Amino acid sequence: MPRPALLLLALALSLPAHAADPAPPSPTAEAMSSLVVGSLILAARTDPNSSAALIGCLEKIPRTIAAPVMQEIVLAELSAQELASLDKFYTGPYGRRVTDNIERTNNPREPFSDAEWEQVGPVLRSDANRKALKATHVIGPHGGRIQAAVNPHVERCLKLDEAPATGS
């Protein structure tokens, strides 16, 4: 086979693999993943039976661990306009504060002044955000898929927590 033909064949064979690469998760998918992981951390921090080792391990779980699954879910559940609106919010400072704060409190109102809440509240109460939260909740319609992405990391932390202490 002539060299140009080999080059074209190699190029053609590489295209399907490259085309199959998924797009990176949207800011909304990353935010939904962060909310799930942050909620786990908050639950552990507020449970008097949680050890420091468990909490420390959970804190090391990447916040975007479920983002690829969340991306599939938000693409299926939200319109392009809804996703674009939420992406804009979650890439902004208020959206980042919502996701960052979930580890400290499950009250989304807490980190905002009254003036800021006037801007944030309507987005968080919007139909698009409610749809996203409902679809990406661990006990929601896609919960099994989300749990499959997160549970191996949580189980590793629980095993560390169950390990007998060594030393004196």
Structure overview:
The chain is mainly alpha-helical and 168 residues long. It has one domain. It has nine helices and no strands. The protein has helices spanning 3-19, 27-46, 52-59, 67-77, 80-91, 93-101, 114-124, 127-135, 143-162. α2 (27-46) packs across α4, α2 (27-46) runs parallel beside α6 (93-101) and α3 (52-59) crosses α9 (143-162). It is globular, with a radius of gyration of 21 Å. The model is unreliable at 3-19 (pLDDT under 50). Keywords: Signal.
Write the layout of secondary structure elements.
Elements: H1 3-19, H2 27-46, H3 52-59, H4 67-77, H5 80-91, H6 93-101, H7 114-124, H8 127-135, H9 143-162
Helix pairs in contact: 2-3, 2-4, 2-6, 3-9
Name the average pLDDT: 84
State the share of residues found in helices, binned by percent.
55-70%
| Percent range for β-strand residues | under 5%
User: Terminal Cα separation, in Å?
Assistant: 72 Å
Task: State the low-pLDDT regions, or none.
Answer: 3-19
SSE pattern: HHHHHHHHH
Question: What structural class do you assign from the helix and strand content?
Answer: mainly alpha
What is the number of strand segments? 0
Q: Number of helical runs?
A: 9
Largest sheet: none
Protein name: DUF2059 domain-containing protein
Keywords: Signal
What's a quick, concise take on this entry?
This protein is an all-alpha fold and 168 residues long. Helix content is 70%, strand content 0%.
Give me some keywords for this one.
globular; 0% strand
